[in-house]
């Protein structure tokens, strides 16, 4: 996702996106690389994937939707409980050539990002899709899972896209109806059992009524939303790993073990008691592209 025009953003999002104007570039054909994979290949797994081990590192790839985890600093350190790497970039697309930012920067695709992280990861977390259309979703999902399998990823956790939004991606490729179509296809594919390693993280439903987490376009995380997103993915991975939640629902409360699926409940987490939601980590520079991790297992910045 590229950042939306500042005229569509509220004052609270201006720090996040106010200086950027995104323009689209034509989507290229299926991506190929040195390993020979392309969007036309069919992913085939003859046996179910192994149970992902607790502690198997996760790679989270996002467009600018979740770049707010970094830009607001604090949200980054709300990701706790599992080893991880973030690869966050404005204007990223899944497989076809990414769109162009205001400064001419074109990030590599999700597919290409996998090639940059071929070793040592057990889980791929897909938080990308707001710059894509819905016409090739099934093919692109197959391409991405096929590549993840070939690189020995054992699990793919795919986030749904918020669809009750005003955001329109560059070139009008994606908008609310498109995002909803992709969500419907994702849920159906996961339910079919074709990809045993595919798990849906229903971020769209979890965050549907939380307008205060986002800028006015409904997509880009604001400060509170960055803490909520970090907390959500931490609980989702804890649930899938069948381990304890990294945090209670509120300060002083019990830590649930095993962690319940956050998708099966409204967001009952008391963010204000767990995180400094009115604060941003000092000295966080503005970047269109970030790779790194939170402070975990060291204490978060607000406790150090």
Describe this structure in words.
With about 300 residues, this protein is α/β, with parallel strands linked by helices. The chain has a single domain (about 5-25, about 50-300), classed as 3-Layer(aba) Sandwich (Rossmann fold), CATH 3.40.50. Helices cover about 25% and strands about 10% of the residues. The protein has nine helices and six strands, in the order H-E-H-H-E-H-E-H-E-H-E-H-H-H-E. The protein has a six-stranded mixed beta sheet. Helix 6 (about 175-190) links the parallel strand 4 and strand 5. The radius of gyration is 18 Å and the shape is globular. The two termini are about 35 Å apart.
Question: Layout of SSEs?
Answer:
Elements: H1 14-17, E1 58-62, H2 68-71, H3 74-77, E2 84-89, H4 110-115, E3 123-127, H5 137-150, E4 155-159, H6 176-192, E5 198-201, H7 203-206, H8 223-241, H9 271-274, E6 289-292
Parallel strand pairs: 1-2, 1-3, 3-4, 4-5
Antiparallel strand pairs: 2-6
Q: Helix content range of the residues, please?
A: 25-40%
The number of distinct helices, counting runs of at least 4 residues, comes to: 9
The total count of strands amounts to: 6
Order of helices and strands: HEHHEHEHEHEHHHE
The parts where pLDDT drops under 50 for at least 5 residues are 3-50
Q: Characterize the largest beta sheet: strand count, sense, and whether it forms a barrel.
A: 6 strands, mixed
At CATH's second level, what is the architecture? 3-Layer(aba) Sandwich
Name its key features.
304 residues; alpha/beta; Rossmann fold; 6-stranded mixed β-sheet; 9 helices; 6 strands
